[in-house]
Amino acid sequence: MSSSILIFATLILAISSTTSTAHYTPCSESFFLLAQNHNFSNNFCKKLTTLGAELAWKINDQNDQEISIFFGARLYDRLGWLAWGINPAKLPQMVGTRAIIGIRYPNGSFGVNTYNITSDTKMGCKLMHQRFDGANNDVSFRDLSMRYKAALDYHIIEGKMVLSSGYEIRKLNHVWQVGYLGDDGVTPAGHPTILQNVDSSETVNFRTGRPASHVGRHRRHLRTVHGILNIAGWGIFLPSGVIVARYCKYPLEWKCWFKLHICCQIIGYILGTAGWIIGLALGTASKFYNFKTHRLYAIFIFTFTTLQMLALRLKPEKKDEYRKYWNMYHHFLGFSLLAVISINIFNGIDILKPDETWRWAYIGILVAFAATVAGLEIYTWTKFKSSVHHGIGSHEVTSTNDDFPQHRSPLPPPPRP
I need a surface site. Which of 53, 70, 189, 234 has the fewest CB within 10 A? Predict the structure, then answer.
């Protein structure tokens, strides 16, 4: 048990060290070169945390409340607009945002307008244009334009904003988004409700480009921890324990197979349960999204894995008549859990939409397991057939209450002369 705790602590430290340094990512080289052509400094060019969006900005040397903005994102499928804005509220959020929205019209032309995002907008009401000219507003926008860069497949919004003295640029709430056009083809309508769209906001220090608040970053950090723990626990250690139980007793005939099997299952259960609890906490704390299918799969996995773990104490004895039926149930449930675990891990990756490395890494893990099982199955049948071939007439293969076939002689040894 102490070894599993040590592994768990090491994993958490590794996750913390990698994610704590990843919250600031410079923009891509191609976007930086494009921004540089528009006189935006390298110090203020970064990839945003969601939607593949990137932002460059430049602060006026004579007036630090005047900031030039260069924002880019891709418009996939039916998406017809992209937006960037700031919010004077205490927390980064959609409602209350003073937004610049660039629209791609069906005829291929572009338009840029400013909007005040209110609670009515969140309720689905039509978004109304509002001019921010600085007369009675806390922010003004000017020199707005939108263009498409085919080399990057980016739509770009460019403009300038002047903030009132009430804004602190070292702690500025900014929001970005992409969405659909209304039925009229000219009015911005709703945006997708997937996790990345909901998380498209942060509080940033415009002097350094680094986050000035931990609210959104900690939530994303916990999601990463949740994903890694579940992949490690449910997706690696539990299948490893199954492979050990199936092949290390026969044909490998390793005496300590049961101890290794139990060790893998306990470590996997601890890590998976920790990830499951974090996932429940994240789902309960969220006001904007609920992934029912992912949650139901997770509850199924935790419930029946817990039932499997009870075999440590409640497993029938080998002499019990119903032990073979228990073995059938235990094996069937175990293999079913492995299938559901794989489905739910892919479902979780689809929800988080991290870098494609995650998906390919897990596919690599599954391929490694499949290759291992295929190799051991071939070796098992080769050894089994060899033992039968060399022992015809002297022994037979019978099924006992144990988990795997056993070889024994059907006749007693001949008497001594």
Answer: 189
